[in-house]
């Protein structure tokens, strides 16, 4: 019998049945697009469109999109499996996470015409989506954003404001923007008065500038300015002013996709470390025989797999239409922690070589560590669990 990896051994068979074909399709991508290619694109400061095209050809971009909109059906479980497998191969694309995340509220709350216009082209790679909510002064407190979308008098909206840390603007075709459409003073509560708009990244009045981030990944971050950008009414998702309600439906998927990103990277680092520990023998026998090296790696293995179980519990709940909030938050928290530990163990195992470009271990650290902060910081995740699971007062 073929040797099964630890993840396959602990995941329920119904998850393996969905996950295995996705992993095979990702193998079709990574056979032609390697970590070296991913690093080369990063060095060149460009998004690797060739990887995106390969994902499209393997049918990965249509996962989770209903067949009537050109997708291959399935659900979040398959989308998460794709994110996980790409990261495990060392070639995660944040644009995939963003496109899947941003199309979720459109699929759930958009009109059939909007789904056809905005979602269908993403299923074959013809279009991609980035997402813009964060602002310099609001940060985690999204309710405090000040970008406005006000009626332009002819049925559309005028968008003005500034966003920061927006990933993939250079690579995406469209951007989903969260903007205030009713002043806070006139809103019945703090969640009301925001709208979700979709616009072409190159619309007149949109400008963006890359940020120097010091992260090793090809998806770059930008500040984005909106200067009297005209947005037609038919580009507003759902009812104006109700945007946050729609957005909340996509936050749990985003957490699961972030968990997949972290777990894949954790696996990538751990697998590298195990290979290295089998060979490296400065004292004549492999360092993997020393328990000071072996135990952190074994610990990392179990923590990654435990977080993975939580992640796929969350995806199954979401795909079954159940409330997945607790499992999604727990998965994001546990996965980001497990991945950082795995990466740390991988660095220690590699010793000085971890910091060489040739061995390419320390570069994983920054991105893995990032996932404790994005797309939402772990403190907010813990706030959610404290308040909604433990029933403690809001902080
Ligand atoms: C690489 C990268 C990519 C990103 N991509 C995107 C993107 O594509 N689109 C987008 O809109 N945004 C994006 N972001 C923004 C990201 O979501 C924010 O950085 C993040 O939500 C936190 O905002 P902030 O950086 O302003 O931190 P702040 O709000 O200033 O928070 C700083 C720290 O304070 C603590 N803290 C904050 N609030 C609370 C709280 N309520 N309870 C307890 N502790 C708290 C946390 O430890 C937090 O890390 C990206 C950021 C990075 C770094």
Any chance you could write out the topology, listing elements then pairs?
Elements (H helix, E strand, L loop, with lengths): L5 H5 L2 H18 L4 H10 L4 H9 L18 H13 L5 H16 L2 H8 L9 E4 L15 E4 L5 E11 L6 E7 L13 E7 L5 E5 L10 E11 L4 E2 L5 H37 L11 H29 L5 H26 L11 H9 L7 H12 L6
Parallel strand pairs: 1-4
Antiparallel strand pairs: 2-3, 3-7, 4-5, 5-8, 6-7
Bound molecules: flavin-adenine dinucleotide.
Q: Could you characterize the architecture of this molecule?
A:
- With 395 residues, the protein is α+β, with helices and mostly antiparallel strands.
- The protein has helices at residues 6-10, 13-30, 35-44, 49-57, 76-88, 94-109, 112-119, 243-279, 291-319, 325-350, 362-370, 378-389, and strands at residues 129-132, 148-151, 157-167, 174-180, 194-200, 206-210, 221-231, 236-237.
- The chain has 3 domains: 6-127, Butyryl-Coa Dehydrogenase, subunit A, domain 1, CATH 1.10.540; 130-241, Butyryl-CoA Dehydrogenase, subunit A, domain 2 (Beta Barrel); 245-389, Butyryl-CoA Dehydrogenase, subunit A, domain 3, CATH 1.20.140.
- 49% of the residues lie in helices and 13% in strands.
- It is globular, with a radius of gyration of 21 Å.
- The N and C termini lie far apart (53 Å).
- The mean pLDDT is 97.
- Bound molecules: flavin-adenine dinucleotide.
- The site of flavin-adenine dinucleotide (FAD) has 23 residues, from strand 1, strand 3 and helix 12.
């Amino acid at each position: 019998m073929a040797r099964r990896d630890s993840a396959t051994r602990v995941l329920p068979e119904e998850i393996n049945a969905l996950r295995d074909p996705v992993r095979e399709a990702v193998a079709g991508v990574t056979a032609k697009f390697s970590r070296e290619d991913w690093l080369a694109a990063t060095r060149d400061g460009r998004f690797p469109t060739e990887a995106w095209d390969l994902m499209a050809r393997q049918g990965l971009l249509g996962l989770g999109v209903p067949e009537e909109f050109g997708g291959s059906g399935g659900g979040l479980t398959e989308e998460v499996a794709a994110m996980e497998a790409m990261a495990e191969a060392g070639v995660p694309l944040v644009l995939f996470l963003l496109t899947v995340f941003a199309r979720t509220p459109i699929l759930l709350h958009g009109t059939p015409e909007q789904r056809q216009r905005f979602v269908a082209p993403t299923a074959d790679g013809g279009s991609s989506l980035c997402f813009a909510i964060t602002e310099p002064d609001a940060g985690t407190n999204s309710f405090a954003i000040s970008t406005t979308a006000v009626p332009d008098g002819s049925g559309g909206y005028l968008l003005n404001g500034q966003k920061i840390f927006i990933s993939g603007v250079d690579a995406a075709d469209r951007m989903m923007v969260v903007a205030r459409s009713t002043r806070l003073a006139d809103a019945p509560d703090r969640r009301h008065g925001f709208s979700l708009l979709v616009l072409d990244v190159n619309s007149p009045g949109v400008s963006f500038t890359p940020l120097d981030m010091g992260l090793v990944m090809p998806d770059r971050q930008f500040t984005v300015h909106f200067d009297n950008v005209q947005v037609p009414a038919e580009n507003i998702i759902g009812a104006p002013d109700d945007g946050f309600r729609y957005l909340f439906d996509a936050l749990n998927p985003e957490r699961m996709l972030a968990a997949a990103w972290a777990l894949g990277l954790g696996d990538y680092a751990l697998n590298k470390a195990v290979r290295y520990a089998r060979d490296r023998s400065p004292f004549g026998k492999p360092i993997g025989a020393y328990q000071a090296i072996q135990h952190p790696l074994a610990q990392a293995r179990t923590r990654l797999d435990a977080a993975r179980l939580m992640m796929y519990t969350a995806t199954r709940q979401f795909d079954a239409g159940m409330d997945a909030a607790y499992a999604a938050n727990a998965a994001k928290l546990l996965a980001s922690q497990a991945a950082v530990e795995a990466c740390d163990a991988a660095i220690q195992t590699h010793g000085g070589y971890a910091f060489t470009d040739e061995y390419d271990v320390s570069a994983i650290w920054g991105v893995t560590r990032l996932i404790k902060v994005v797309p939402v910081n772990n403190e907010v995740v813990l706030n959610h669990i404290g308040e909604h699971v433990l029933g403690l007062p809001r902080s």
